[in-house]
Amino acid sequence: MNPLDIDLQTPKKTLSEFGDITLRVLNYLPNVISQEQIKNDYIILTSRIAGTTKYVRPINRILFLRDPNNFENSFDSVITILQLLRKKKSKISFEQKALVDKTLYTIQQSIGAGLDLSVNQNSARKHVGNRFEELIKAIFTEIGIANKKMVLQIPYETDEGIKIYKCENDLVISPYKSVKSTTKSLDKNEIVVSVKTTSKDRMGKMFIDKILLERFVDHPQKVIGIFLNDVQRKEENNISFTLVSGLFMVYSKFLTRLEGIYYLDPPPTAKKKPYSNYMKPFSDLIVDDLSTILTT
Prior knowledge:
This protein is α/β, with parallel strands linked by helices. It has helices at residues 4-8, 15-32, 68-87, 94-118, 121-142, 203-217, 245-254, 282-293; strands spanning 35-39, 42-49, 52-55, 59-60, 146-158, 161-174, 191-196, 222-227, 231-234, 238-241, 260-263, 279-281. It has a 6-stranded mixed beta sheet, with helices on both faces. Strands 1, 2, 3 and 4 form a 4-stranded antiparallel beta sheet that branches. A two-stranded antiparallel ribbon has the order 9-10.
């Protein structure tokens, strides 16, 4: 077995791999955490070892399944729920949806916490984002939704001839057995998915990309965003929320409207009207909304 820091930086392909790494981190945390402070619903964990202080990103204590046994049981239940979604034969309860969000949140935040404690900040940021993309991809695969990372190549003219702008899409999900979109075109029934750990400095790009994609492919294009959260540590013992809600509403009204924004840990503003009309928990997407958005 690889050392924990190497395992955290290694790409994951299956939910089983994500479950394993989460259990490793949950069992590791009690050995290295020196202090914890609570700010509203968030825990700020601190590790002080050999004169070095490291802070863990804020963790939602309502969502985070800190006990390894609790997580393991919840993980097994979520696998069963995802199999039911794949078969499309059973109604998923509110409690089951909440368990999906908590379990996936615990997976991603465990990875983030482990990286915060074991690698430098720049590496942690990069790998946290990569693991989140891989986690969302694994979820879609588990429920039987065809998906693929796609880089759309958009040609444009310059004085030096035709050049290519590469518009990278984190995922394209499809109602078909396999993704039909290519590097040169997007199928109008497929959905472009932006997968980011936070909307900070990224929300505007989603709107611009939707407009750009629609101009290039010459048809309406469905675009959704999936975020982990919009909260960050402020100084040593505080937090701040990073969702620029007013700007989101302005973009939605005057630029274009996205087909949905989904969070594992929605910021407080996202739970209030009118923002809750646009922003929902991730479980709402896979349980309720995909059947409407993902139509042929």
